[in-house]
Amino acid sequence: MCIRDRLLTDSNKKYLERVFGCRVFDNYGCSEIGPIANSCERGNKHIFEDSVIVESIEDKDMKLGGKGRIIVTNLENEVMPLIRYDVGDIISVSDKACPCGRNTMTLEVFGREDEFIRVGGKDIGVVDIDKVLGGILGIDFYQIVQKGENLFNVNVVNNGEWESGTPELIRKTLMPLLGKRAMINIRPVSEIKPEKSGKFKLVKKE
What we know:
The chain is built from 3 helices and 14 strands. By secondary structure, the protein is of the alpha+beta class. Strand 12, helix 3 and strand 13 form a beta-alpha-beta unit. The model has no long low-confidence stretch (mean pLDDT 89).
């Protein structure tokens, strides 16, 4: 199975593989550029270097620790060339050898630039949060909304395995990431609606 929608987190990937009983591969790209990279059998996203040039540009306004905005140049579109197009995602690029044997550079995607929140002087995104929430039973879908510097609403759609202690477990799990001063409100909801663009934001600030 090949996924081409929104960011595929580790927890979503494991869920899909468990439900469908097959391996899941992640195809990364955008409608303006087309395919940019695809994951191999070892899980690394290999860049299609014969059709795109990928750059990672540091954002001076964000504290990302080596990550940067992805800038892409399409080498195949002769009708409407796109040169150094800002996709809007945060990535890191690596030239380390992959065990699969392919010799192209790889990239790791950390989410949309506007899906990061500033906490204690550092920027936290979807991947950071999924690492701590992805393994909690009872969560079908979630969204974290930063309402203030230390105020967060966590909207959660439960999957039927919700227990009385789940809200406190979510709060305790998020506390090391969001800080000891964080006020975390757990809000069970029936659904999480997409933005006007039609896409879902798992992390946002208001």
